[in-house]
Design brief:
mainly alpha
Length: about 90
């Protein structure tokens, strides 16, 4: 085991940084979606954009190109809608 994979106690970490980002990103995607449905659309869309960005490192690490394509597709549509919302209002 390499020293960079160990934490202060010498044990291997429970999850990698990309796994942690994936979990946080997925939680933000759910929160953003619910905020869009039941709260303020603009803030929900912003939360979803952040969540989508956080899931990208995990997909790159595992070479999940279909997931990256979907993240890019939804990211482009979300960012274009956010631009429309902020420029119009």
């Amino acid at each position: 085991m390499e020293s960079r994979e160990k934490n202060w106690s010498g044990a291997k970490p429970l999850m990698s940084k990309s796994d942690l980002l994936r979990w946080i990103g997925n939680i933000l995607l759910i929160i953003g979606y619910q905020t869009m449905l039941w709260g303020e659309f603009k803030y929900g869309l912003m939360i979803k954009c952040i969540g989508g960005i956080l899931t990208v490192p995990f997909a790159i690490k595992l070479k999940l190109w279909d997931v990256l394509f979907l993240c890019a597709f939804f990211g482009i549509t979300e960012i274009s809608k956010l631009t429309q919302i902020f420029l119009v209002s």
